[in-house]
Amino acid sequence: FTISPSPTRSSRSRRWRGSIDVAWPPHIDQIVSERWTQHAGALLTLEEFFDGNVDLGSICCNLINHPGLDVVRQRLEAIVARPDVSSAWVEVVDTDRDLDWPFSDRVWFSTSAAKSEAEIWRDQLEADEVIDPDPQSDVGERAGPGEQIIGVWWD
Fold it and tell me: What is the pTM of this model?
């Protein structure tokens, strides 16, 4: 199969439409439904978000030269492998069933690193901003001992 780079845009998200028809696997639908909250979307592990995902528009959709999902995943896994990062979650922010895969524009890290270090991660991931969690969400509660939650966001 091939993925054709023909972006389609809506008011809620931007995505790439492939030349294949991919339905959400039942386990992803169940995970997103069970974890969805009003203030934090649904938080998925890197494995949950990337395993089986072929939709370039599901993350980093604003990048003109999308590096591919494998590269995005490898960059995220390299950050999580650091001694000052204990975990990461992809926050699903759009569950429109017309999308080939749940859509995310942010990733959260539980880390003891300074926010200035996260600026380097932002650059490595080609994200637009380093962000803090919404105080109304439970994302901040996921921080490990001595850690904080820091996110990267793609506009």
Answer: 0.80
